[in-house]
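Reader question, answered in our methods column.
A reader sent in the components of a multi-part assembly and asked whether the whole thing could be modeled at once rather than chain by chain. We filled in our standard form and ran it. Here is what they sent:
COMPLEX SIZE: two components
ENTRIES:
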Amino acid sequence: MWVKLASIDRRWIYGLMIFVIALALLKPVGLAIIPSADTKKVYDAIDKLPPGTIVWLGMEFSAGGVPELMPAIQAIIRQGFRHDLRFVCGGMWVMAGDMCDQAFSIAKTEFPNKKYGVDWVNIGYKPGNEVLLQRYLTNVGEAALNIDFYLNKLDTLPLMKEFPNLKSAKMLMIFCTGTPGEREYIKHVSGPNNIPLAQSCVSVSVPEIMPLIQAGQILGLLAGMKGAAEYEVLVNKPGSATAGMDAQSFSHGLIVIFMILGNIGYFLTRNKKA
Amino acid sequence: MSASLTLWGTWLQALFTILLVSVVFKDNPAYRFAEHTYVGLFAGYFVALTYFNYLRPNITDRLIKKGEYLLLIPIVIGLLIYTRYIRSIAWLSRYTICFNLGIGCGYVLSKDFKPFFVDQVKATFLLLWGTGNWWKTFSNWIYVVGTVTSLVYFLFTLQKKGVQGRISQIGRVVMMIAFGAAFGNTVMARVSLFLGRMQFLMGTWLKLIKI
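And here is the structure of the entire assembly that came back:
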């Protein structure tokens, strides 16, 4: 039996995984989501900012990061708009403008009094990677060639008059899936200028980022979809991350079961093969 | 965006998601069609976005309208990379690469050393007793011992025997645990990605669940 199990067709595993995820999405059991210390640190840091403060949202990801990062961004926008914070967003990744556009799509229905250009600006993607960040530190308008994602002139937007450079941001909140990402912000922006930096990242990046948190270079972290779900709990607005937590937990359980079975099978059949 | 366009977009997204996921069961022409379409679309999107957001404003506003002719220098250096297609002057393309390498090395040396070496080393200078919190003390010990033993593992000039061998063994175990954590997070990330698509298929497309 173990020999058979050890050589099981991987498609059965994929099929079972799809079934478990679908079932958990259809019939959620509502497992508890308890915010971690790192998530709370981000929440508290944003909560302490006085109304009117400008926060930079760095959209350093593309479509692949949406399931894990978009719920976190939207939860932060909700928290920020409730506290009358203002946001300027942009990024070094090609889809930065699209991601920002999708994130702020909630403003129309949930915060109808918030206006583009006054409460938030989407600078979008500009090429240059870390050189771009350096130029943002001296003059955002010049570095962004005076146009936003929607091709508006930046100098016509009221918010940008109060945001001449990246140093005008009282906090940096970045959403990353890789390079360029947090390291570029640490070495060019947050480190030399003492601007608090918080991050939301995809789960795969968490081990790489932990030393940066330990060193105090990042003040808090929303780790993957789990971190986003925790943030949704903190802002009291459950979204797609909260809805996905049951499915994620059950799928992880399934993977663990397969790993245990695989290992038992390996040890029991090892001698027979020899 | 009009409602019909949104509907078309949703169906297209659903179709391409299914085509791309089909590869886990077997490689097939439908998957390859979806993959090539995605790559082509992304390349086209990147070119269009860079042109409208960067190249055009740089050339029309800064170079032509404002007369910032110094911009011609980086433009020429950049364009030299294409000389590699003409064999007789292909050597000129090396200047672009040299320029990039020089800037890259300078940048790394001047910007990376403090945050990613000095500050990281400083972060390991932790209190090993007297923190007033036993969990913090324990964590500090794990952190310091883990860092030191992992570094000892990479001392290749000494044979892994005796005390150094045993410390290396501990370093190896520490790294195995770290790799396990990294693998766990990788699995979590991949499941999250698939979960996102399942939420789209079952929620936005089929309306079976509410998000």
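What stands out: The two ends of chain B are 21 Å apart (CA to CA). DSSP finds six helices and no strands in chain B.
Send us your own complexes using the same form.
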